[in-house]
Amino acid sequence: MPKILLLNGPNLNLLGKRQPEIYGRETLADVEAQCRSLAGELGFEIDFRQSNREYEIIDAIHEYRVTAAGIVINPAAFTHTSVAILDALNASELPIIEVHISNVHRREAFRHHSYVSLAATGVIAGCGTQGYELALRHLARLLGSAKP
Ligand code: CA2
């Protein structure tokens, strides 16, 4: 079964616990459960990770660079700052879908620029946590592995 790495950046462990007006009420565990269920339907295996440390995100990208079929990444605040994550993603030849729960373009100007978008195949923003499911469905279509 093709494996998808689903990677979440800093503070997303607080999802559903703070700022529900921006990020909704679902926890990261809820998102993981929904993604696992959908991945099963689509014929994927998923590895779901979250880290508050930039180097762990980079290491995960390196680890899955060869073994995964695609990456779904919400780099959180590192989106707007991390050339290192961009470089790691550019070193993989995988399809990469960048997900943002909120519509970053309706927020502060510093959230309007993404380094990660330079490596992304597609970008989803403002669809809430459903963005992760949309990303998985798009990867299924791209990889031709399932019935999206
Ligand atoms: O909209 C998104 O998904 C973001 O990637 C979330 C990041 C933010 O820095 C980006 O600009 C947009 C922040 C993640 C923090 O998540 C929290 C969730 C609940 C409570 C507090 C933080």
Top keywords for this entry?
globular; 5 strands; 148 residues; binds ligand CA2; five-stranded parallel beta sheet; alpha/beta
* Spatial strand order of the main sheet: 2-1-3-4-5
What is the count of β-strands?
A: 5
Kindly state the mean pLDDT as a whole number? 96
Radius of gyration: 14 Å
| Low-pLDDT residue intervals, each spanning 5 or more residues | none
Ligand inventory reads: ligand CA2
Number of helices: 5
Order of helices and strands: EHHEHEHEEH
Q: Structural class of the secondary structure composition?
A: alpha/beta
Strand content: 15-25%
What is the approximate shape? globular
Largest sheet: 5 strands, parallel
Helix-residue proportion:
25-40%
Q: What is the terminal-to-terminal distance?
A: 15 Å
How would you concisely characterize the structure shown here?
The protein is an alpha/beta fold and 148 residues long.
Describe this structure in words.
The structure is a single chain. With 148 residues, the chain is of the alpha/beta class. The chain contains five helices and five strands, in the order E-H-H-E-H-E-H-E-E-H. The protein has helices spanning 20-23, 28-42, 54-64, 83-90, 130-143; strands at 3-8, 45-50, 70-74, 96-100, 122-125. A five-stranded parallel sheet has the order 2-1-3-4-5, sandwiched between helices. The longest helix is centred in the first third of the chain and has 15 residues, at 28-42. The chain is globular. The two termini are 15 Å apart. The chain binds ligand CA2.
